[in-house]
Write a structure and sequence with these properties.
alpha/beta; Collagenase (Catalytic Domain); seven-stranded mixed sheet; three-stranded mixed sheet; 10 strands; about 20% helix; about 15% strand; globular
């Protein structure tokens, strides 16, 4: 889950639904807050759980949709068991994986709040560029390509004001109603809901092993799309971040400096504090926050920096997403 507020990001802790461990990724957009910071870096400035991306740095990285260490361990055990039973391994294969994508745009009753067709094209461009490994010279290329099959528009004030329950533990009744009415395809289809997402979130997504099919997919704040008003989170990077969760990735700062981190071998350990919001170059937020080798992976899509900061997946992340796809989504 990516949680961002106009001047901040929040991405931690657990989005605990009544079904049990529900993993999804989410972001958030609370009202702008004044945050003291140095000059921006040139590159930036069955379990059922959900993870989110948020906008609120004032919450010190507390993401209502992240997982605890115990939950992450149970999820990893589930992946390992399924991989062992199927003989699948985290190895890349040839050919392209085309993900059928359904875009659901929800507007106010008067039609306002919709991104333009150009913004939707740009958003999909950001996603496909990220998954093609073209966002940075050091970004890993994946086999995924996301192809829009259909885009629909719904005018509904209650659905447009998309929210979680007051305690942040689940989607509210209107959000679930919207998903059940609009969802298309199976687990292999990506459903993207674009609305005036509240609760201080930029977006969130379901992990592939969680919840009813009709609630699967990802939700993004309309203003976080390219050209939207949620600067500095308006370049479209909420999309790659949330799809990363949809394909089984944790945040890079999962477990902080404690083993096994994010369960990805080539992403250095990253402390889970205010440092997750910055690219580096700030004396108050160092870029090497753990004693293990390697600088913080602040430019990784699964970290929490501003959109201009996020531009890469690692090779092991690419392999894990493909493994999770084969285990939980392919052919379903």
């Amino acid at each position: 889950m990516r949680v961002r507020s106009m001047s901040s990001l929040l991405r931690r802790r657990g989005f605990h639904a009544a079904l049990g461990l529900v993993l999804a990724g989410s972001l958030s957009t609370a009202a702008p807050a004044t945050v003291a910071s140095a000059a921006p870096d040139p590159e930036c400035d069955p379990p059922d759980l959900s993870s989110a991306r948020a906008l609120d740095r004032d919450k010190h990285g507390e993401d209502p949709n992240s997982v605890t260490a115990a939950q992450a361990a149970r999820i990893q055990a589930l992946i390992d068991r399924r991989a062992d039973a199927s003989g699948e391994r985290a190895t890349a294969r040839g050919g392209e994986i085309v993900v059928r994508t359904f875009i659901h745009v929800i507007t106010r009753k008067n039609g306002s709040g919709a991104p333009s067709a150009k913004q939707i094209r740009q958003q999909m461009g950001v996603i496909n560029k990220a998954y093609a490994g073209e966002s940075a010279a050091s970004s890993a290329k994946t086999r995924f390509r996301f192809k829009v099959v259909d885009t629909d528009y719904t005018r509904n004030n209650a659905w447009y004001d998309w929210n979680l329950t007051p305690d942040g533990s689940d989607e509210d009744a209107e959000a679930k109603q919207a998903k059940r009415a609009l969802h298309r395809g199976g687990r292999a289809a990506l459903n993207v809901y674009i609305a005036g997402l509240g609760s201080g979130l930029l977006g969130y997504a379901n992990y592939p092993w969680e919840g009813p099919l009709k609630l699967d997919g990802l939700v993004i704040l309309n203003e976080s799309m390219p050209g939207g008003a949620a600067a500095p989170y308006n370049l479209g990077d909420t999309g790659p971040h949330e799809i990363g969760h949809w394909l089984g990735l944790f945040h890079t700062f999962e477990n902080g400096c404690t083993r096994p981190g994010d369960y990805i071998g080539d992403t250095p350990y990253q402390d889970d504090g205010d440092n997750i919001f910055f690219c580096g170059g700030n004396p108050d937020f160092g870029a090497d926050t753990c004693p293990q080798p390697g600088l913080d992976p602040v430019h990784n899509f699964m970290s929490y920096g501003d959109d201009a900061c996020l531009n890469r997946f690692s090779p092991d992340q690419a392999r894990r997403q493909e493994l999770v796809w084969r285990l939980f989504r392919a052919g379903r």
